[in-house]
């Protein structure tokens, strides 16, 4: 028993054998145009994919930069807290100074 695919291939070959040279050339031209169209579509999809990859990489860099910036702010806050401690100021001292 022949498989369905083998039967379809045989039928397609027989149909192609019945075509004239002009018909075969038209099919070839159509297939070439279709191939070019698909290549363009693939290139466009590849460009979009590359843009998304860049966007993802950039967003990772932006997130890292934000973390680094927050680290700078944390270091600045620690410096302020150390200054307050070394100068003898704290939140309780501020309230008593403002009340006097």
pLDDT averaged residue by residue: 83
The coarse overall form would be rod-shaped
Order of helices and strands: HHH
Helix and strand content put the structural class at mainly alpha
Gyration radius, in Å: 37 Å
What is the tally of beta strands? 0
First and last CA, distance:
106 Å
Helix content: over 70%
The number of helices is 3
Count of domains:
1
Strand content: under 5%
Keywords:
about 100 residues, mainly alpha, rod-shaped
Overview of this protein structure:
- With 100 residues, this protein is an all-alpha fold.
- It has one domain.
- 90% of the residues lie in helices and 0% in strands.
- The protein has 3 helices and no strands.
- Residues 96-100 have low confidence and may be disordered.
């Amino acid at each position: 028993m022949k498989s369905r695919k083998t039967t379809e291939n045989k039928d397609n070959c027989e149909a192609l054998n019945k075509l004239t040279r002009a018909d075969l050339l038209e099919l070839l031209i159509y297939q070439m145009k279709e191939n070019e169209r698909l290549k363009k579509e693939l290139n466009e999809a590849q460009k979009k994919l590359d843009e998304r990859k860049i966007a993802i990489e950039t967003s990772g860099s932006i997130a890292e930069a934000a973390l680094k910036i927050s680290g700078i702010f944390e270091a600045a806050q620690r410096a302020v807290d150390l200054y307050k401690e070394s100068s003898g100021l704290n939140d309780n001292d501020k309230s008593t100074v403002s009340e006097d």
